[in-house]
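pasting input
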Amino acid sequence: MTANELRSKYLEFFKSKGHAIIPSASLIPENDPTVLFTTAGMHPLVPYLMGEKHPAGTRLCDAQKCIRTSDIDEVGDATHHTFFEMLGNWSLGDYFKKEAIEWSWEFLTSDQWLGLDKNKIAVSVFAGDNDAPFDEEAFNIWKNLGVPEARIAKLPKKNNWWGPAGETGPCGPDTEMFYWVGSKKAPASFNDDNDLWVEIWNDVFMQYNKNADGKYEKSVQQNVDTGMGLERVLAVINGLDDNYRAELFLPIIEKIEELSGKKYDESTDVRRAMRIMADHIKAATFILGDEKALTPSNVGAGYVLRRIVRRAVRYGKQLGINEVFTFKIAEEIIKIYQGTYAELKKNKEFIVNQLVKEEEKFKKTLEDGLKEVEKIFEISRTLSSVVKKYIDGKILFNLFQTYGIPLEVSLEELEGRSIRLNHSLGLDKKMLTEEFEEELKKHQELSRTASAGMFKGGLADASEATVKYHTAAHLMLAALRQVLGGGITQKGSNITAERLRFDFSFDRKMTPDEIAWVEKIVNEKIAEDLPVVCEELSLEDAKAKGAMGVFESKYGERVKVYTINPSTGSGSVFSREICGGPHVERTGALGKFKIVKEESSSAGVRRIKAILE
Ligand code: SER
């Protein structure tokens, strides 16, 4: 079965169960400062899981592009990825456990659909704890479907609980499905520690709401949120125990083999390096190909992008690739996906240019880093008669931190010099590794605290302030189009309770006059206290009415259209956009609008930061 067939079968199956098929959202979450990337299919749907009405109805399904950096240390094995596609179906206060589980089972095992061997399937359910009871209902549904009790594991929260995505919000017990990929007969009972049981699907039952006191309350709306890993299912369905041997990776691995002259099956180290390269360059290709035009940088999502590209380059070097190469692999990746994700083809030139630029930049830093290693060697040599030990884990960690030079490379370089110059540095590799790892751990703890901090406020917190900024963004886009011309389109936005950040297409700096003019128009519209009206229309009708949409087909068939100053009221339409909302009811609620910064975001894209006072 091909990836295309799997995607369409999944969507077709859930369509036959009354679900509306919605398109994948961007990889970069919109108006959501709490996470860097879309990490699951449910992510763009949070407002609807919280009770907001979705224009396409209460049963939805899609194939969503996702990036998860939390699993990055596991990338290199057969089944973990930074970028993956998640097939998902949702009930927004509609069906619950019985239908969700029975449909999962039907899709997996029915010959009409995936036809997987029932004897190779095991599941797990939530065992219960002080916060919520054992999920007996899920357990019994599986039992009634014929899954043997020994294959229904009862596991704690760590395994069988999902959410909330932020600190508070919808969450609940889940049930996970595993498929046996071993060559021997599947064991009678399920064991969570055995890697040959590959997790393929997760059905989450959102029946709780975690509140600010950390308590789990029964939620008003009961939702289902499921997620199936496309790459994993594609592998198991084709009888493979390694995702990288399946269609969405194999051509990438072959390209790496060609560039490096090494073979995937040569050794476990080579295999691991090739998997990491394939995974990371794929993630980078999708980030760069996203409509939101993100570039490598030293902060936030741009920093993640930078690190994965550099990590891939380092592994490439390790395999003996000396030329600039990541773009060649990206071209292969674009070929695989362009039929499904047209944005990759459209943004190909941008992807390739950015990769080349970043790789060259890294090569330059690497050179600087190696000069630093040289310096360290010399100091150590000079001091060796005075101090016993100059080089420690901290110095090596700094090299890694500042220049991106991995420990093993620093050690190799230092040793190489000491052999060439016949001067022993007496490096204790084991101790240095331990010291290095200690530093790394300290650093990771710091960054974990920082990223945990990012979750504060919670995904679901559509606070009053962010709603106002959301409406301000619509006013500003309309004003920009009046001042700079009708060619201006939105390229992305990011809203916190404190400010609005807005990217749009424009190829030069705005003049102070233009900025003042945009502010004036927005403030006039606020002063006029115009109504903000929401309608649900088909995408075609929305377009016919002249609605702007950033990601045109993102919301599927039926879309919400927000109009400011509708023609039925006072005068002509000022702004009309396809948008999920929410918005204020009248513009008068916004206060005073002020642009605090206008700068370049990337080639052909400007960025405005604005506040409401
Ligand atoms: N949100 C759940 C997960 O990511 C199910 O989609 O596993």
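fyi The pocket of serine is lined by residues 40-42, 88, 162, 202, 204, 225-227 (CB under 6 Å).
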